[in-house]
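Hi V.,

Quick status before I head out on leave. The structure for the redesign project is tokenized and pasted below; the design run finished overnight.
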């Protein structure tokens, strides 16, 4: 029974045409007949208004209204041209009989044969043993009989169809009947045999295919593959072009180990908004066990639902929806295809509205999460109200700011309640093109109304008020320099940032949504070392930093940017979160960033963080990238961070990884691509990819082999093979790998 179901699904996938077609990119394709089509006419004349213009070397007029033309005969009417060695034309009936090197040309099609009959009155003609070419999709073929009805439709009997250039029959469709609708740009064929390299590879009683690359209803690229999680896996998406602003994709997915999953996606676009709804449903998971692992969801329904919506109105209001649901914790691990999917632990559920003005911004939202896996449940915000204001360049050059929030936190097990936060600020930017100085003073006031504190750990009516004072300053120096025969401008930009925040005891305040930031270059100039409003870090510190840039004087392009900085602490930090240690050193780690563009093809990004007292590196990230105009890509990056949970770093676990990816054009038509992603600290290869692609003017194929783990802590490896074959202008089948390669190889672009 399973084999029958699988066979029927596979036939459904392969017998369908596709709803879209790709044009060749980066290929030199000469079809040999591009200049044979007549120009597309912009005039609209009725049939009676269109005169018949005939040219020939010899003309013979008969008494019954028949004319015989011979020698280079051209009959032109209504943007159609019939050429032949000899033609007979009856001006009463409008019938034309032509033979000898006959060709019929218009803006969409060229047909050639030895004889033809044409009705000028009906704008309809027939030809025997003909060859044809179409403008759309560069298609060509032969037919025993062709019936051409104006420029709208063409019917062919015992015909062939291909988009390959002359002299190449890499693939060919042979059918008893073919109907080409040039207005809707859709072709249909019956009793079809598809040949590749002259060998029959597929038969179907019916197929439809596109004649251009505009979207239309029809079956999309089927996906056929195999994996350890699903077994033999077949997806057959059907695209429904409902309206210019509405479409849907229905995707039956048959997995030999798990059963039949139904999926769908609906997209809509209106003047004031857009959105997307996605859902999948597997009635009963048939997989009892995977090796030694028992499937906890055996014979259970597996589901997914997702809705994303955005609306932007003329009155500056907006509305957003982001709602996500899965039936179980293992859904993405079992049915997803990558680390980014299987590593999800929280699914967002957010509904919000807001206003964006010149001075005031307002947001109102209700937000929660679905928790996946053995992780701590997040607080819900039911609701959260945000009001922010900014008034620059007021009297005496002052800037005024306001940051305010009201939020109701809800949790099933922990303390919850309300939090009100108000932070007005005033600043006075001063400076010229050579320097800037900005003093700033803010007052932060936070008030809580807590409930469900079962351990009596916190003050139910806790309040906190404190000032935040800062002074930001910098200088700008520049000089001209010459290197490698080019003129550059080098800048030197020292910057000093002083921050003072007095200490306030905050141990009686819960942690609703606050965490310690990872120490990096942005942290050097932040007003708070915490993300969130439950902690305001005490500070008496001075940041000193230096930035230098090298700018091409002619183009203005920044070729190099180098920044280095450090914080000097005048007093010990005392405000902490649970599980963190207060800073006791007099200085922070040194932070350095470098961004370099070497020519038009090479770029380098790097960031380093090290402890100058211990001469040890706490974090580093280096990435080198190469990309040329011919499609060559090479990326290599190394990431490292030390296992050091100090507040300087905000790091809980060590990490050391190397990532190498490439795309190598072997020739105009062949490409190789690969990736090696390895966790050095755990001696685990997270992902290996190797693939080969061939792309010609009429067909393409891509083979990708992938070996990966779903999670860095997962010892079980997964293997997958993606094979996709595309017959350009007809369709494709196999398992698509575009999104996988775009995610894995930086700079990869699907063609």
């Amino acid at each position: 029974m399973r084999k029958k179901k699988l066979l029927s699904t596979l036939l459904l996938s392969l017998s369908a045409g596709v709803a879209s077609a790709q044009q060749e990119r980066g290929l030199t394709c000469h079809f040999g007949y591009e200049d044979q089509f007549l120009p597309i006419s912009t005039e609209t004349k009725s049939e009676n208004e269109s005169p018949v213009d005939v040219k020939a070397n010899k003309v013979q007029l008969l008494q019954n209204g028949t004319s015989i033309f011979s020698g280079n005969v051209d009959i032109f009417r209504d943007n159609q041209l019939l050429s032949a060695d000899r033609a007979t034309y009856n001006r009463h009936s409008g019938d034309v009989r032509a033979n000898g090197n006959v060709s019929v040309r218009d803006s969409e099609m060229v047909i050639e044969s030895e004889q033809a009959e044409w009705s000028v009155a009906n704008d309809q003609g027939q030809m025997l043993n003909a060859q044809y070419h179409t403008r759309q999709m560069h298609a060509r073929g032969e037919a025993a009989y062709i019936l051409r009805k104006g420029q709208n439709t063409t019917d062919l009997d015992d015909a062939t169809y291909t988009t390959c250039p002359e002299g190449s029959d890499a693939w060919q469709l042979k059918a008893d009947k073919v109907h080409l609708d040039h207005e809707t740009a859709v072709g249909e064929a019956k009793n079809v045999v598809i040949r590749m390299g002259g060998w029959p590879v597929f038969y179907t009683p019916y197929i439809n295919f596109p004649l251009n690359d505009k979207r239309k209803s029809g079956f999309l690229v089927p996906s056929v593959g195999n994996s350890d999680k699903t077994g033999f896996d077949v997806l057959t998406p059907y695209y429904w072009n409902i309206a210019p602003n509405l479409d849907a994709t229905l995707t039956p997915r048959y997995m030999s180990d798990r059963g039949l999953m139904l999926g769908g996606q609906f997209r809509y676009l209106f003047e004031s908004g857009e959105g997307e709804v996605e859902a999948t449903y597997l009635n009963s998971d048939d997989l009892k066990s995977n090796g030694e692992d028992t499937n906890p969801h055996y014979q259970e329904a597996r589901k997914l639902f997702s809705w994303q919506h955005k609306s932007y109105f003329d009155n500056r209001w907006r509305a957003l929806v982001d709602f996500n649901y899965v039936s179980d914790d293992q859904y993405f691990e079992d049915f997803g295809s990558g680390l980014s999917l299987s590593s999800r632990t929280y699914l967002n559920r957010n509904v919000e509205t807001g206003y964006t003005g010149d001075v005031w911004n307002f947001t109102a939202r209700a937000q929660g999460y679905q928790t996946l896996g053995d992780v701590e449940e997040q607080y819900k915000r039911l609701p959260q109200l945000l009001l922010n204001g900014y008034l620059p360049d007021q009297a005496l050059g002052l800037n005024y700011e306001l940051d305010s929030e009201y939020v109701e936190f809800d949790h099933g097990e922990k303390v919850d309640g309300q939090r009100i936060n108000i932070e007005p600020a005033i600043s006075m930017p001063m400076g010229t093109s050579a320097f800037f100085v900005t003093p700033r003073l803010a007052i932060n006031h936070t008030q809580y109304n807590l409930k469900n504190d079962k351990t009596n750990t916190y003050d139910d009516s806790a309040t906190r008020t404190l000032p935040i004072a800062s002074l930001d300053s910098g200088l700008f120096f520049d000089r001209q320099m010459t290197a490698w025969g080019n003129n550059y401008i080098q800048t030197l930009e020292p910057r000093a940032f002083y921050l003072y925040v007095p200490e306030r005891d905050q141990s009686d305040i819960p942690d609703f949504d606050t965490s310690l930031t990872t120490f990096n270059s942005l942290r050097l100039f932040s007003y708070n070392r915490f993300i969130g409003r439950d902690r305001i870090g005490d500070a008496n510190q001075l940041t000193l930093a230096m930035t230098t840039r090298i700018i091409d004087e002619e183009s203005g392009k920044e070729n190099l940017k180098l920044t280095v900085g450090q914080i000097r602490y005048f007093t010990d930090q005392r405000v902490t979160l649970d599980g963190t240690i207060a800073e006791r050193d007099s200085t922070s780690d040194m932070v350095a960033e470098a961004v370099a563009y070497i020519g038009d093809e090479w770029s380098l990004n790097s960031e380093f963080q090290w402890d100058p007292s211990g001469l040890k590196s706490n974090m580093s990230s280096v990435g080198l990238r190469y990309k040329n105009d011919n499609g060559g890509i090479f990326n290599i990056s190394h990431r490292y961070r030390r296992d050091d949970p100090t507040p300087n770093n905000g790091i809980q676990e060590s990490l050391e990884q190397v990532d190498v990816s490439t795309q190598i054009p072997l020739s105009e038509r062949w490409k190789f691509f690969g990736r090696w992603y390895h966790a050095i600290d755990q001696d685990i290869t997270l992902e290996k990819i190797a693939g080969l692609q061939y792309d010609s003017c009429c067909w393409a194929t891509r083979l990708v082999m992938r070996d990966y783990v779903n999670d860095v802590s997962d010892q079980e490896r997964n293997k997958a093979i993606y094979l996709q074959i595309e017959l350009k202008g007809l369709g494709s089948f196999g398992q698509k790998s575009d999104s996988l390669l775009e995610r894995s190889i930086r700079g990869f672009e699907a063609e």
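Above is the designed sequence. The mean pLDDT is 85.

G. will cover questions while I'm gone.

Best,
W.
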